[in-house]
Amino acid sequence: MKQSKIFIQVAAYRDPELVPTIKSILDNADNPENLVFCIAWQYDGNDSFNKDLETYRNDERFIIIEIPWRKSKGACWARNTIQQYYDGEEYTLQIDSHMRFVKSWDTKCIQMLDQLKKNGHKKPLLTGYMPSFTPGDNNSFVKEPWKMKFDRFIPEGAVFFLPETIDEWKELLEPVAARFYSAHFCFVDGIFCKEVPHDPLYYFHGEEISIAVRAFTHGYDLFHPHMLICWHEYTRKGRTKHWDDHDEKNNLEPWHKVNDRSHKRNRILFSMDGEDHNTIEWGEFDFGKERTVKEYEDYAGINFGRRLAQQFTLDNVDYPPNPIVYKSEDEWEDKCTKSYTIKIDFDKSIDSSEDVVFWYVGVQNKNGDELQRRDFDRDMLDKINKENLTQQDFTCFTNDVPYQYVIWPYSKGGLWGEKIVKRIV
After folding, report:
1. pLDDT-wise least confident of 40-44, 65-69, 384-388
2. Where are the alpha helices (DSSP H) in 231-328?
3. Kind of pairing between the strands at 336-345 and 230-232
4. How many Cα atoms within 13 Å fall on the side-chain side of residue 148?
């Protein structure tokens, strides 16, 4: 069956996995002749894998935007640059440059959109955190599709998410409703490139929640695929990222300053912390007129102004829309679980020697009851030592009052070390 064109958006920063990703897309598509690739190739001429892209330079299906790494302004800027090349293709697929695809992925995505449209969704959008894999390890491919779960509001205001398995996926006949948007996988009608373009003044954090709400307010209905479509590499260990290059040592504006401005822009967009949305002329990067931000908050069960999430959202057992729409802002706080960001301090007295398997880190109330626990595994301990970290944010969801936290090393052989108890300030 002949398919319409798919505009494939790939923002790639010095990534040796770009060409394997392209190859996987082409090899597993039912109709590779109908694919149009637009790649923002942010490159360093000294990288040995640059030549790998030569195979596709004379392929009429490919638009390759050459960007020396020093001129790159980040992921959202690169995605926006790509979207300027959209030329009316019926569908678009936005992905990262380190992914692998299943057979017939193109047919499956189009069929899912068609099914959702027949079910009454005029503007369906497929998105999600795709299951993980590790390049070179054929046993690493996760075999279940994932959904996205609310994690927390970070101190700067952006919303973070976590992946979670769709447990009942084998019984499902169609995609499931989603609260959130993933920038590394989005399949939707091509006009989305024009209606909800990426804001180039965003850097990284805040990108996904802003697109989720902007898409929703433009009338798009968000869904997670109920079947495997592709896999995503999450760690990119040992490979250069944008924030590795962009700092004072390379005579460039440090990435964290750009990121701070991006966080500020995101808070203004959502009128957080007393910011006024109308202080910026948002233009095409504003919310849509089909629905309101309040309607999104009711749908997803989060409140931007008060940085709260409904328990229904935190549990993530059932799909949106959330069943209860509260009548007033105060009722949100009465019914929601509170979110606390706690600074966990490290010092040299805490044992992180090679025999230590993990640190138990637990937040407790005044009576010593555990409110939330997180184990810092060996990778995290090595990072603390290597980067000489002195502090880590710990987000705790509770309706109690956090009073103290405990750090307790656990070593090989089942031995617990010295327990460190610190009062929360």
Report:
1. 384-388
2. 242-245, 255-269, 293-300, 311-315
3. unpaired
4. 28
Own/partner contacts of 387-391, CB < 8 Å, gap of 24 or more, are: 389/346, 390/345, 390/346, 390/347, 391/343, 391/344, 391/345, 391/346
CATH of region 339-423: 2.60.40
Domain 1-325, CATH number (from 3.40.50.10400, 3.40.1350.10, 2.30.110.20, 3.90.550.10): 3.90.550.10
End-to-end CA distance of the chain: 63
Domain boundaries defined on the chain: 1-325, 339-423
Instruction: Check residue 184 and give its pLDDT.
Output: 97
- Nearest CA to 146 out of 114, 120, 180 is that of 180
- Length of the chain equals 425
Model confidence at 1: pLDDT above 50: no
Strand duo 420-423 + 404-411: pairing = antiparallel
DSSP one-letter string for 211-256: HHHHHHHTTPEEEE-SS--EEE----TTS--HHHHSSGGGTS--HH
Q: Which two tokens stand for residue 138?
A: 């054929």
* CA 165 to chain centroid: 16
Give the pLDDT mean for 92-104.
98
Q: What is the pLDDT of residue 3?
A: 57
Average pLDDT over the chain, rounded to whole? 93
> Residue 248 — φ and ψ, nearest 5°?
-65, -30
Residue with tokens 């997670």: 224
Percent of all residues in the chain with a pLDDT value above 70, rounded to a whole number: 98
- Distance from C-alpha of 417 to C-alpha of 421, rounded to nearest angstrom: 13
Q: Can you tell me the mean pLDDT for 340-349?
A: 86
Q: Is the peptide bond before 321 cis (omega within 30 degrees of 0)?
A: yes
Sequential DSSP letters for 81-147: HHHTT----SEEEEE-SSEEE-TTHHHHHHHHHHHHHHTT-SSEEEE--PPB-BTTBTT----S-EE
Residue with tokens 């209860």: 324
Whose structure tokens read 């973070």?
160
- Over residues 356-368, the mean pLDDT reads 92
